[in-house]
Amino acid sequence: MTLIDTDDQRDLASSVKRFVSGQAPMAAVRKTIASEASFDPDVWRRLSQELGVAGLPIPEQYGGAGASWSDLVVALRELGSGLVPTPVLATSVLATGTLLALDDEEARATWLPRFAEGTAVGTLAVSEGARSPWAVADSTCVVEDGTVTGTKTAVLNAAEADVLLVTTASGVVLVEKGAPGLTITPADALDLTRGIATVTLERTPGRLLAGDAAAAVDAVADLANLALASEQAAATKACLDMTTEYAKIRYSFGQPIGIYQGVKHPLADIYTDWALTDAAIRKASESLAEGSETASLDAAVARHLASSGYVEAAKQTMLLHGGIGFTWEHDAHLYYRNAITGNVLLGGPAAQQDRIAQKLGV
Amino acid sequence: MSTDEFRAKALAWLQQNAKPFDDNEPSSGGATIEESKAFQKGLWEAGLAGITWPKEYGGQGLGTAEQLAFNEVAADFRMPVGPFVIGLGMPAPVLLEFGTEEQKKRHIAPMLRGDEIWSQLFSEPSGGSDVASLQTSAVRVEDGWLINGQKVWTSGAQFSDFGAVLVRTDPTRPKHQGITMFIVDLHHPGVTVRPLVVATGDAPFNEVFFDDVHVPEDAVIGEVNNGWAVAVAMLRYERVTIGTGVRARANPLGYDALVELVRARGLDDDPSVRRTLAQVYARESAMRSYSAVLHQEAKAGVPIGARGSAAKLAGATFPLWVSDLVQEIFGEEIALQTRDTLPIARSILAAPGGATAGGSNEIQRNIIAERVLGLPKDAGVDKNVPFNQLKLSK
Description:
The complex is a heterodimer of chains A (362) and B (394). With 362 residues, chain A is of the alpha+beta class.
C-alpha cells in the first residue's frame, strides 16, 4: 500500500494549485460569494475541460479519465485548501459515485459524459434531517406511479443541478431539473462557499434506477467521507499555514507573537493532528482504490479526524489572529463557516463515530 | 529472498521461539535477563536482528520492507527483548552514524547478539528537558578522562554493560559547545546504580552516580565538545522509537484491549461507550498510518527531520487522553482495582511518564513549531554565555 503521492499525482496537484492561484484565488472566491451563484460556472467548466477534474473518477467509456478516487483526492486537496466553490463534491463524488455503484446503464450513459465535460451538474438528495443523514431504508420519501413525494434537506448544489438522485425506501429515483412538483429552496447557509438547499418533491415524475440502492448509498457514504475529509484536511493546513505566517510577522511586546508558547503550542498541536489526519486520509484513499475490506472503516476514521481537526484549526485561526481574525474582511471566518458546515454535513460527529463502531463490529 | 518469504521465515521462527500474546496475562513479561539475552541471540542467529543494518557490523543488510514485515508479524508475539530496546534503538544507530570504525566493529554485533546491553545517560536531577544544562563533568587526565557527577531516569542501568553518557568537558564554553558523549563501562567500580521508584510503585529507572570513573581517549563518540550534535541525533532516534513503538495489543489503553474489557463488562451496547471506542480506534489507527507514511517517506529519501516529534507527541498524549475516557467507561471499577488486577489501572498511573520521558510534550511542541513550522525561536538568555557563568538548578 503506497501512502505517498505518485509522480502523476504530484503533477496533477501542481496544475490544480496553479489553476486555483491564477483563476480562483480568494479575491475571486469572495466575488462568487457576493454574487447570486453558489459557484462560478466558468471556473467549473475550465476545471472540467482543461484539467479534467470533474471526470477523474468517471470511466473512459463515459468520457472520463478513468482514474482512481485517490487521484480525485489530490485535486480535492487543492480546491479545498482555497475554499474554491465548485460542484465537485455533488457531481463528481455523490452523483457519479451513486451512478457507478448502481446498475443503471441508461442513466450512466446519459449523465456521466456530461458530468465529465462539466456541462451538467448532478447531486444526491439523501439527507432527511440530522437524524437520518443517509436515509434509504427509513426514508420517508414515497415512490408511486412513476413519481416521488417527500422532502430532502441540505442537498448540495440542488439549485444548480441538472439531475437529482433522490434516495427513497424503494430505491434511488432520478429526477431532472424543472420537473413538475420539484421545489428547490436555497438556504441562506452558514458556509458561504457551498450551495445548499432544501428540496421538496410533490408527485414529481422520476425514474427508479436499477441496482441495490442501500449498498450503493453505503458505498457513496464512504466516498463522501473520503472526499470531505480530503477537502477538510487541506483547509486545515491552509488555516495552519495562514496563522503560522501571521505569527511570524505580527509583533507584540517587541517580539513576533510566534515566539510565545501560548501561540506556538496550539499551532504545534494543530500540525500534529493534521499530520495524523493526512496519514489517515492516505490510508483510506488507498483502501478505497484497492477495494480493501477496511475501506468503509478507514474512510469514516479519516472523516471523523478531519472534521473535528478542521473545526479546531479554524477556531484557533480566528483566536490566534486576534481582533483582525474576527473581521468580515479577514478570511478566517470563511474557513470557520466551512469547517462547521463540513463537520455536520452528510453525517455529523456522532453519526461518524457510530459508523466507525458499526464497521468495527463493536 | 522475497519480502513474503522473509515474513514467513520470521513467523515460523517466532512461532517456535516466542509466546503469542495472551491478553489475560499481566503485561509484565517476567523474563529474566538471561532469558532475554538467549532470545536476542536466537533472533540474531535466525537473521531477524539488525534487519536494515550493514552486514559488516553484524546486521542483515535488508530493506524497510523486511523491517515492516517483521514488525507486523512480531506484533502478535510476546518478545522478551525489553533490555535491548534502548541500546538497539538509540546508541546503536548513533554509533553507526558517528562512531569510529573500531567502535562499530567492537560494539554493534555484540549488541545485536544480545551480549552487550546498553543504556542512554542524558538527564540529570538539575535539568530534564533542558538536557544541555547538564553538570556531570569529565576532566582530562593522562590517557583519557575522569568523570564525576550524577545521571537520572536511566532505564536498565542495573543490567547494562555500557552507557552512552553525555558529559561537560569544557565549562568555559557556552552550554551547547562544551559537551562530549562517551562510551562508559558501567561495570567500572566508580559507577553506582540505584533504583528510582516512580508513581506506579515500580522502579523502571535508576539514578547513576559517577565517582572518578576513568574512560580512555577512544571512548569519545564523535568529537570532543561536539557531543550536542551527537545527542540531538540520539534524541531524534529516541522519538522515533517512542512514537512508533506502540504495539496495540501490548497496550491496555489501546483499542484492542479496551474493546475486550468493554465486552467482558457487558458495556458494548451502550452507544456512548461505542462512540468512545470509535474515537480511540480512529486516533490509534491514524498514529499507525502516520508511522507508515514516515517509513515510506524515509524509504523514498524524504527526511523525517523534526516530524518525529509529532509522532512522539501523539504517542505521549494518546494514553493521557484515553485515561480520561476509560474513567467514563468503567467508572468506579477503576478506583477499586489495584494496578495488578486491572492492567488499565497501571497504565493510567504510567501515562504521565510517557509525556515527560524523551523530551516533555512542551519541548516536542517547541520543536514542531520551530523546526517544522519555522516559527521564531526564543532567543534565550543562555545561548552564548559561558556555562560556568549561568544560573543553574541545584
